[in-house]
Amino acid sequence: MSKLKVIPEKSLTNNSRIVGLLAQLEKINAEPSESDTARYVTSKILHLAQSQEKTRREMTAKGSTGMEILLSTLENTKDLQTTLNILSILVELVSAGGGRRVSFLVTKGGSQILLQLLMNASKESPPHEDLMVQIHSILAKIGPKDKKFGVKARINGALNITLNLVKQNLQNHRLVLPCLQLLRVYSANSVNSVSLGKNGVVELMFKIIGPFSKKNSSLIKVALDTLAALLKSRTNARRAVDRGYVQVLLTIYVDWHRHDNRHRNMLIRKGILQSLKSVTNIKLGRKAFIDANGMKILYNTSQNVWQSGLWILLSIPPV
User: Fold this and answer.
1) S-S: 105 plus which of 76, 101, 110, 308, CB 3.0-4.6 Å?
2) How many domains does the structure of the chain reveal?
3) What is the b/e burial string over 63-91, where b = at least 16 CB atoms within 10 angstroms of the residue's CB?
């Protein structure tokens, strides 16, 4: 078998450099044994994607085959470093280009390929942390742009993979954060939300959120957003009421309100209120809220920040 020739980067003009590298990568797809070359080429593409907006535009332009080549390589390669390089390229593309580039990745079949990669990666024991962080980060960005993402994720068994990663890595915030972001996307689908609830996701969120802390505020914020989405399910809301979480939410809210004197964590406080709003959509939730003295608590706290507290007070229908 002849060795693939790698074109020196300096021999290509700025305009054709990325085109040449993508052409090489396409040829490598037909030569599975060329893992060293694939690593080299994808690392060069990653460097260009990180440093040049022009490269990112060219790879996602109408008529470009760059995304197909990357996804085909991602689907077929068995080399870990090549996989990580391509995932990093995809992160660059979807992070810098807004919704259009995310939608472009979805139309090229990115959701299904990444979900399949997630399933394959989960079979490793233990799963590779960098790989899981990258996959979850990208899926959390593209999921909202894929109308069938919730169904695809459920069919591919992705829900439990992500949920179990959080359960097993609660102290690893680098891994847990993108997993929570993806759980929030899963929860937009009502069937997924109920399924996750049955597997303990509501209880899990309360292991992450808690009293005021100057640490891990971004993690708590995402956990609260995820909880609010989960509690839109009447089944999950009943579960939360049965476990006494309405009182817990009120206690946590008061603690954050008392300590957040400079109002730097308004999004967290709003997230707690949103979760209360979700759970009080059911009659049992409203009763639990009133029994826990919720009306008085929010009225008193709303004297300082009336916009947030009054918003939920006015939105709660009578029992």
Assistant:
1) 110
2) 1
3) ebebbebbbbbbbebebeebbbbbbbbbb
Per-residue pLDDT band at 10 (split at 50, 70, 90): very low
234 CB contacts (<8 Å, ≥6 apart)?
281, 282
SS3 109: coil
Within-domain flag for 147: no
Burial of 96 from C-beta contacts in 10 A (0-12 / 13-18 / 19+):
middle
132 belongs to a structural domain: no
- Domain assignment present for residue 300? The answer is yes
Tokens in use for 287? 């009763």
Residue 316 gets which letter from DSSP? P
* pTM of the predicted model over 0.85: yes
Confidence of residue 210 (pLDDT cuts 50, 70, 90): confident
Which two structure tokens, joined as six digits, stand for 223?
Answer: 């956990």
The count of other CB atoms within 10 Å of the CB of residue 2 is: 5
Burial of 251 by CB count in 10 Å (0-12 exposed, 13-18 middle, 19+ buried)? middle
| Pick from 274, 162, 283: nearest CA to 224 | 274
End-to-end CA, the chain: 76
pLDDT tens-digit profile of 26-69? 888 877 666 888 999 999 999 999 888 888 888 888 888 899 99
- Name the residue range of residue 261's domain: 202-318
* CA distance linking residue 196 with residue 228, whole number of Å: 13
Nearest to 203 by CA among 179, 172, 167, 173: 167
Whether 268 is covered by a domain: the verdict is yes
Tens digits of residue pLDDT in 173-204:
999 999 999 999 999 999 999 999 999 999 99
